[in-house]
Amino acid sequence: MQNAIVKTLINEEQIRLYFIDNTQLLRDIFALNQELPESLKLMLGKTVSAMSILSGTLKGNQRMSLQITLSNPLHKIFAEAEANGNVRGYLNEELLRSSNTEEKSMQDLIGPSGMIRVIKGSEMNQFTSITDMPNQHITDDIANYFVQSDQTPTYLYSDIQLDNGASLLSSHALYAQLLPGAPPHLLSEVKMIIKANPDIFSKLNAEKASDSEEALTQLFGDAKIIGHSSSQFFCGCSKEMFYGMLYSLSEEEIKRSIEQNEDIEAFCHICGKTYAFEQKEMQQLF
Questions:
Q1: Please, are residues 145 and 128 in contact by the beta-carbon 8 Å criterion?
Q2: Cβ–Cβ contacts within 10 Å for residue 46, how many?
Q3: What is the pLDDT of residues 7-63, one digit of tens each?
Q4: 3-state SS of 78-124?
Q5: CA 54 to CA 133: how far, in whole Å?
Q6: Residues 206, 85, 89, 145, CA torsion sign
Q7: How buried is 100 (Cβ within 10 angstroms: 0-12 exposed, 13-18 middle, 19+ buried)?
Q8: How many helices (H) and strands (E) does the chain have?
Q9: Three-class secondary structure of residue 182 per DSSP
Q10: DSSP, res 172
Q11: Residues facing 26 on adjacent strands
Q12: What distances in angstroms separate CA 102 from CA 49, 128, 270, one per listed residue?
């Protein structure tokens, strides 16, 4: 089941483990970023993939916003997830315009001084955390955020397969977190089992819930599926959101567009939509 988060408890209900086949979600993201070099495509893909599985941990109207700042402080990756499963992500213009990203690995691009900033909560109750990126790795360091910020041992795994032309073949993600009172060594055992089973997602993402539960039991000794939720790409932009851009233009710029009978266009860098502001709209603003 694509874009469906499967929520389970394993190891005598001491670990919550979620997994997802988010291939379609990443296809939607990559369709808007077709010209990206492979290194940037993987970085964006792993960030969005991680956020898609983490959307399943949010409740009510909670939202989680992520900003990854690479060692070059001008280069940033943004992603956001909502409790209803809506996920979006993009690279900032400075990173997109960088000329030497094709020659660099993800580790080199993150560098020794990468940072992660997370804003999490509801509109009325938000908290912000900033952590470093000691692993120089997207999913490992997002998991490290939970360790540093929440003191909760967490494991995140993203498996993205590209063909020789850097087109997406498949994408899966897995999240495991110790529940209160669980011994820390259990999470290490889960990591070892996952690494020892490279085909784990073909076993877990079965059409029938009973088959997934059986595969989990074979891997981890016992398992119980406790729920499902969806995760999907959703931008949520609208023309009204870009009126602020018009107000940022100078009076001369607006007047020149009116005199030359030109529309002003605003481009959403998340979903690729273009919104045109016609003459009468600019006349009213002017």
A1: no
A2: 25
A3: 999 999 999 999 999 999 999 999 888 788 888 999 999 999 999 999 999 999 999
A4: EEEEECCCEEEEEECHHHHHCCCCCCCCHHHHHCCCCEEEEEEEECC
A5: 18
A6: negative
A7: exposed
A8: 11, 13
A9: coil
A10: E
A11: none
A12: 21, 32, 22
DSSP 2: B
Two tokens at 116?
């992660």
Neighbours of 36 (CB within 10 A): 20
Gap between the Cα atoms of 116 and 148, Å rounded: 11
Q: 3-class DSSP state for residue 140?
A: helix
Query: Where are the alpha helices (H) located in the chain, listed in sequence order?
Result: 23-31, 38-54, 93-97, 106-110, 138-145, 185-195, 200-204, 209-220, 243-248, 251-259, 279-285
Candidates 275, 8, 53; CA nearest to 172 is: 53
Cα within 13 Å of Cα(230), Cβ side: 8
Check pLDDT > 70 for residue 282: no
> What pTM does this model have?
0.87
Q: What is the mean pLDDT of the chain?
A: 89
For residues 54 and 58, what is the distance between their CA atoms, to the nearest angstrom? 7
- In contact, 39 and 58? CB cutoff 8 Å: no
Q: What tens digit of pLDDT does each residue of 200-259 get?
A: 998 887 677 778 889 999 999 999 999 999 999 998 888 777 777 767 777 777 777 777
Backbone angles phi, psi at 93, to 5 degrees: -60, -40
Torsion of CA 7, 13, 16, 20, to 10 degrees: -30
Sign of CA dihedral 48, 51, 53, 55: negative
Phi then psi dihedrals of residue 17, to 5 deg: -130, 120
Q: Which amino acid is at 262?
A: E
